[in-house]
Fold this sequence. Notes:
359 residues; alpha/beta; Purple Acid Phosphatase, chain A, domain 2; seven-stranded mixed sheet; six-stranded mixed sheet; disordered N terminus
Amino acid sequence: MHRHHPSVSTAAPRAVPRRLLAGLALVAALLGGCAQPDAATVRERAPQRGSFSFALMGDMPYSPREVKPVDTLIDDLNADRDLAFVLHVGDIKGGGERCDENLLRGRLQQLRRVAPPLVYTPGDNEWTDCHRPSNGSYVPTDRLALLRRLAYPEPGRTLGQRPMSVRSQAREQPAHAAFVENVMFEREGVVVATLHVVGSRNGLVSWMALDPSDGVKGTNALRGAEVESRQAANLAWLDRVFDEATRIRAAGVVLAWHANPRFEAAPGTLERLGFQPVLDKLRERAAAFGRPVLLLQGDDHVFLVDRPWMREGSTEPPLPNLTRVQTWGAPRMQWIKVRVGPNTPEVFQVEEQKVGGNP
């Protein structure tokens, strides 16, 4: 079903093909995108660890007519026997679709068809934006509570036909017991984790459809409390993830969340405001870790690989060991394969996949 496109090479960066929307970004070489440890550091990694692969998908389906292409994509995933797990970075419904319980149940049931363990982190369309009239004028925090019940019925257990056990923040950090969606696990010396970071400026977009004073005369109390608690949980979880990676001398770290955190925007701008705390913590911990860190996201629906803190003209200090991958999204029903070689200097290789018959 799927066809492998060339891996992101270790040569000079190549331009994004026209069908990826020319000029969107430069596809960076993964080896160049991650810090390359010296030979002494590599020798410290004992015992030798095995290679594995996993899939990245997100931002689909966005309408009933896109359900069938997502089924085709899932069939393609299930045919790939190399996949150790699948990461879904959120948005299982369109921004204009209603946030009704039956719709959420149906989309999650679709994801349960995935044969490998499926690790899912929420997007903004599932709850943050549900205040919109087109979404049903729901209170977003109520939809979040519902989503947690539906998507994480057993905290510490993934979705998929072959679910696996993971470490849940809800169990490991009692101060953040609500955050069943933030999980972590280790495979072959690589630490993989999810963080609940969403679009709509990470929850800072007002609920004016429900509360006309929100964002004008003040902040809606429910929205403000939610943003504050989620920021605190994400920062605490980032620390726990990198503490664990340091403890086991991990070859690399994989972080998955939904949002494009607007690396291109300057710190302190409105676009960055909701993301700045988590980006500051990520920069601090990734720099101290020093080995490859792979950040996986959705949100903008176009395949992208770059080193966001190595951009020309950036006002922020360079950070060469962090590479960002953004997956395809609706209406482009495709997925990304990440090959992990813990004993190699670059650790991660990224391959775009083509699902026959899908856009």
